[in-house]
Design a protein that fits this description.
Layout lengths: L1 H20 L3 E6 L7 H16 L3 E6 L2 H10 L6 E2 L2 E2 L3 H25 L4 E5 L6 E5 L2 E4 L6 E4 L4 E7 L2 H8 L3 E5 L1 E3 L5 E4 L1 H11 L4 E6 L14 E3 H10 L6 H13 L4 E6 L5 H6 L7 E4 L2
Parallel strand pairs: 1-2, 1-13, 2-10, 5-10, 9-12, 13-15, 14-16
Antiparallel strand pairs: 3-4, 6-9, 7-8, 11-12, 15-16
Length: 294
């Protein structure tokens, strides 16, 4: 009986959050270990289906970098990166689109549907969802000591989005699963960073939350302790001091961009924890780092 009562108490703890978030949209960036390990993939799909059944509109944006690199090697191409960005020529973009828009996307859709959801797979090319422009990065030249432009090939950034197709799917109870591939105004396919796509879509949809699943527990402070709640102004200071560095910088930048775009709250959570979505959303303390604008 005690265990049954404890289960009831867990449900009661979740009730205020269910009431608060009913009818709201959450954009979830799905990647890392949660996208690889079978038990974590299963837990993620169950979480998403549960959100859908209690009236929360989930939009999933996924990555798939390791799978792209694996396929490239099978096809005799050596993956190349500059500042963490994949150099993407015409052959590589075909592989990117095949892996992200086909293999990975449909695996996620199938898993969600197997657990009772109604997921639909998309890329940014569907319904004019994402228009992209070429992304330019600069790097200090060892020879001249001056900035030089690095050509990454068919790597893009979001120029604009048309969320109509996502809104239509949401209104009919479907769960959109988006691969981060966009198209330029002249029809050129481009590879786009998934965190950035999730951030822009969250803003365009007026989402209540942007949630990034990662392979870390959250943002750590100088004492290597997870920061439960952080504000944008503190994030900027942590970047300046080097507390936030490396691959975490684009993730927190995606969160801050979403907050500027009107998203109420953003979260960076540990996707290696089973049912991390439910633990972050429906408990008082959560399990990761919540980033607020003020």
């Amino acid at each position: 009986m005690k265990k049954l009562i404890e289960k009831a108490e867990v449900l009661i703890e979740a009730l205020p959050y269910i009431r608060e978030f009913y009818g709201k949209t959450f954009v979830i960036k799905y990647g890392g270990a949660a996208q690889v390990e079978a038990s974590l993939k299963d837990a993620f799909a169950r979480d998403v289906v549960l959100l859908n059944y209690i009236g929360i509109n989930a939009v999933i944006v996924h990555g798939g970098g390791p799978r792209i690199s694996e396929m490239m090697k099978k096809m005799g191409k050596v993956p190349s990166f500059v500042q963490g960005q994949r150099v993407t020529d015409e052959e590589t973009i075909d592989i990117v689109e095949m892996v992200l828009g086909g293999l990975v996307n449909k695996e996620i859709v199938s898993l969600i549907n197997r657990h009772g959801g109604m997921a639909v797979g998309l890329t940014g090319k569907d319904g004019g969802l994402i228009t992209a422009v070429k992304k330019v990065i600069r790097k200090m030249s060892d020879e001249t000591g001056m900035d030089e432009v690095i050509d990454l090939g068919l790597v893009g950034k979001v120029k604009e989005v048309n969320p109509a197709i996502l809104e239509s799917l949401e209104s009919n109870g479907f769960i959109p699963v988006v691969a981060p591939v966009g198209v330029s105004s002249d029809g050129v396919t481009m590879n786009i960073n998934a965190d950035s796509v999730a951030s822009v879509l969250a803003s365009a949809l007026g989402a209540e939350k942007l949630i990034l699943l990662t392979d870390v527990a959250g943002i750590n402070d100088m004492k290597d302790q997870v920061v439960s709640t952080a504000k944008s102004r503190n994030i900027k200071k942590m970047i300046q001091k080097g507390t936030i560095s490396g691959g975490m910088i684009p993730k927190v930048q995606a969160c801050m961009d979403a907050l500027k775009g009107g998203v109420a709250k953003t979260h960076i959570i540990d996707g290696r924890v089973p049912h991390c979505l439910l633990l972050e959303i429906f408990t008082e303390k959560g399990i990761g780092t919540e980033i607020l604008s003020k």
